[in-house]
């Protein structure tokens, strides 16, 4: 408790936005005795970040240092600017990777993006922290990815399960031997069917949960059921409207031990529930979303941002539907007019994934513009 109290006092003194939040809630970190006292602070919703940051660019006065003293600045869909401090493992994923069996003996292919998104650097820094050798492959280009795996005798993989599945399919088609023995997944749901397929090939797989804002929040450690809460996080499952902590299922609300970007009572928008008998210690994983954002291929698609870019390209009437066939996410956008390639590219650049466009006579205006029809 003393660790968290000293952290909150430091953050309160250095982050103007946090100080204003705590003062408005009549919360003094100097008088903090229990974690439960934080419940009086209203939840800061993830979907509030774009507006807060726009009002006070680039970070809404939430960080504890000046922008030019950061190691890196990223941009997530929203847009949301994500700061990186100068800690060696700033997002805290080393703990999760060590629990998954990654060591300094491993050569690890990191297939998360290094471009604007923080995901690539999240795992790069964590892997370097534990002494592993990193292959900064990024996403896409399966032929080159498989060649790297074979030529370098890669032993570990970090990325989404669907992309590793694609790489292994391609390797099998070409008769290429892959030496990967361990994998860590996040940003996408790992189905039991896909887990079984990897394990049958001798690949030990683990999954974790985190966000671009918070870094590592929970991870699989095989020491108990579900995902263990990170040592750098306080997790509550709260009513998405009132913010009151619940005993079972609710929105994942996080307080993160991050001296540069102290997020306190931050509502991720993801829904989970406690593992029976492990309240406050283990969650079952992500069960869905509250609000109007959907994660597709590891990237959030925000309904308001999608509405804006569709209107910008002259197509305000549309419906975007997320499905998952064969373990691979697909975003299909139904429209009432044809779009040229320039407009399609603009949409792709904004939402950061590649959708399929389908022309229809009439878009169903009775439903939301962004619908998740995946069934797990």
Please give a structural write-up.
This is AMP-binding protein. It comes from Anoxybacillus gonensis. Pfam families: AMP-binding (PF00501). The protein is of the alpha/beta class and 376 residues long. It is built from ten helices and 21 strands. The strands form five sheets. An eight-stranded mixed β-sheet has the order 5-4-6-7-8-9-10-14, sandwiched between helices. Strands 1, 11, 12, 13 and 15 form a five-stranded mixed β-sheet that branches. A four-stranded mixed β-sheet has the order 20-19-18-21. Strand 18 and strand 19 (328-335) form a beta hairpin. Helix 1 crosses helix 2 (16-24). The longest helix is centred in the middle third of the chain and has 14 residues, at 161-174. The two termini are 38 Å apart. The model has no long low-confidence stretch (mean pLDDT 94).
């Amino acid at each position: 408790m003393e660790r968290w109290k000293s952290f909150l006092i430091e953050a309160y003194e250095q982050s103007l936005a946090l100080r204003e939040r705590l003062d408005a809630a009549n919360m003094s970190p100097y008088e903090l005795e229990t974690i439960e006292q934080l419940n009086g602070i209203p939840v800061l919703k993830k979907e509030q970040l774009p507006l807060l940051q726009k009002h006070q660019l680039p970070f809404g006065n939430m960080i504890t240092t000046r922008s030019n003293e950061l190691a890196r600045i990223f941009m997530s869909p929203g847009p949301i600017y994500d700061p990186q401090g100068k800690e060696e493992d700033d997002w805290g994923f080393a703990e999760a990777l060590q629990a998954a069996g990654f060591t300094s003996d491993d050569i690890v292919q990191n297939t998360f993006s290094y471009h604007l998104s923080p995901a690539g650097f999240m795992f790069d820094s964590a892997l370097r922290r534990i002494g592993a050798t990193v292959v900064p492959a990024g996403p896409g280009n399966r032929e080159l990815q498989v060649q790297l795996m074979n030529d370098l005798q890669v032993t570990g993989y970090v990325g989404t399960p669907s992309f590793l599945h694609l790489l292994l399919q391609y390797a099998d088609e070409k008769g290429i031997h892959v030496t990967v023995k361990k994998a860590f997944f996040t940003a996408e749901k790992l189905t039991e069917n896909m887990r079984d397929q990897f394990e049958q090939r001798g690949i030990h797989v683990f999954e974790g949960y985190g966000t671009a804002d918070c870094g590592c929040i929970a991870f699989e450690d095989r020491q108990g059921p579900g995902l263990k809460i990170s040592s750098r996080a306080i997790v509550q499952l709260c009513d998405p409207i009132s913010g009151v902590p619940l005993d079972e299922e609710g929105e994942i609300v996080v307080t993160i031990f991050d001296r540069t970007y102290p997020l306190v009572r931050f509502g991720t928008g993801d829904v989970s529930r406690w593992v029976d008998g492990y309240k406050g210690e283990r969650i079952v994983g992500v069960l869905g979303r509250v609000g109007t954002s959907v994660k597709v291929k590891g990237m959030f698609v925000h309904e308001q941002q999608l509405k804006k870019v569709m209107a910008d390209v002259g197509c305000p009437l549309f419906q975007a539907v997320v499905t998952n066939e064969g373990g691979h996410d697909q975003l299909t956008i139904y429209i009432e007019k044809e779009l040229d390639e320039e407009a399609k590219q603009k949409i792709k650049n904004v939402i950061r994934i590649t959708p399929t466009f389908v022309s229809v006579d009439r878009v169903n205006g009775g439903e939301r513009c962004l619908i998740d029809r995946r069934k797990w």
